[in-house]
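Let's do one together. I've listed all components of the complex below, 641 residues spread over two lines.
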Amino acid sequence: MSAFKILIVDDEELIVRLLSMSLRSDGYQTVSAFSGEQGLEVFKSESPDIVVTDIKMPGMDGLELLKKIKEIDPEKEVIIVTGHGDIDSTITALQYGASDFINKPVRDAALAIALERAKSKIAIRKKLEEYTTTLEIKIAEATEEIRRKSNFQRLLITSSNDAIVAFDRDWKVVVYNPEAARLFGEAAKDVRNKMTIDDLYTPKIAKGFKNQVKDEKDQRNFPWKEQVIHTKDGRQIPVRYASNVLFENNEFVGTVNFFQDLTEIKRLEKELVQSERLAAVGQTVSGLAHYVKNILIGLKGGSYIVDVGIQNNNTEKLKSGWETIKKNIKRIGDLTQDLLTYSKQREPEMELCSPHDIINELVELLKGFAASKNVLLSKDLDKSIDQVMADPKTIHHALLNIINNAIDACIEDEDITKKHEVKILTHIDKNHMICFEVADNGCGMDEDTRNKLFTPMFSSKGGKGTGLGLLVTGKLIEEHKGIIEIETSPGVGSTFRVKLPYTKAKPVDGN
Amino acid sequence: MSKKVLVVDDDPDVRSFVVTVLEENQYIPLIAQDGVEGLEKIEKEKPDLVILDVLMPRGSGIRLYHHLKSHEQFKALPIIMFTGIALRSFLKSQKVLDEFQGAEVPKPDIYLEKPVDPEVLAAAVRKKLG
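Okay, and this is what the predicted structure of the assembly comes out as:
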């Protein structure tokens, strides 16, 4: 730093000159003035670092000059030279902001001390200024950094594809991003800092989140759940949501919830189901065509045999051909019936009936056929079951189909060393359902076949099955509020269980 | 002397149709209901020709065909495949059996897909037996 510039003001020229000389020899730069007015001029033009002024001068005196200088620069160091014992002027000078006082006659040592003091004050002020400036820059930088970071975080929340909603410890909404606004249909300005969790959410969701806070700490992470939310503007949106409880120093400060709109996913899922259904229709049509072709083969073959019978006058042939034709006409009839049953929704016709009568009837009907294939048909019926309210047609259809399948499974079985048997059992299970069990020790099914059982037109019987049998059975049982269970093992056999609601007495319905 | 033709098919309608066609054309029909019975009849009755269905319970036509074509004593026995299964599917099944049993068998030279007119079936039999 260059040498300090000192302005010396005194109406006595000699004193000014002497002081100047002395100060210059101490390494200061000096400028002089011989009156208050001149001092002010020089102050303005030279901008000295320190002013040393006599107090008593004609015209503008030292006090007046001090006042003017302080008006220009309140920080400027002004040292006042006073006469001994001039208390009043000294007090006035202090009020005007003089830095220091030295008595007349000015001694070099006293002036030197006063100047050193002024210099160190300037230095301190400068340092303070520097610190202040640095601090200001640092604060500005930090502020900018914070702004950037919070801006980033805000953008993060704003641009999220998930709806993000956060609550403070009083369950007031503090974060509510645009996706949340879209999802809930409430504008951010009406929600943020205004609504509570109960205003925004349905009671069920709100309760779930609130309970979460009460939970043990390790359970505070909420698993994803799915639900349909009803928005204020009447939309229904399937969502997947989760939540986190927020802690600061182990203290609950709020929660944050995340919602994902599943509308699109649900739409795609629906589309997938639709296309699977279309694929099933395709399978149905090709399966149906195959089955119809087999009927056609039978009819063609039958009519040829009839032709031969007529030509040769052969009654045996006529009979055999006619049997074939009749059998295939029946197959068409059965197929039509199955298709109709499958395609139409049908209410079960409930009446008082005896399931065991139906079973006995079926066993009578199928016994002969089973025996001709070396299959033993046996039954073990729960005697406590008597009359029940049920649709006898459903029971008849389902059991006929399943017992037929069981006999077929025995015929198909390649293990001819087995003594094949189909057992029919009934009992009431623990869920108060009447259970019909048909167990065979036939060929059983592999997993693939098992999985396709209820697929339209799937048949493991070559051209001999419509592929509708179990499908129709399943549908009838479902309409009857029942269930069907299957256990099977390849080479060991299968067990089919049909369970229907066990209703003994006729329900009171006013009739 | 009339030639013997064995019909192996599990469908009684098909059997009586084929039997009638054979009788009308002066062949002696034999019948078997499945692959196992088919092989028994072949060994016992020594037919001149076999008309073989593909999908049957107990020893399918797939297996019986492969068995006959991969055993020396039956190789020369003419076979007419007579089925509702597409030829492509049948050949695929034979290829699987080839690999499984380590024996490669020739493709069937007559493969009739049901339904077949009686004249076509009769012509096929005549072609094989003369």
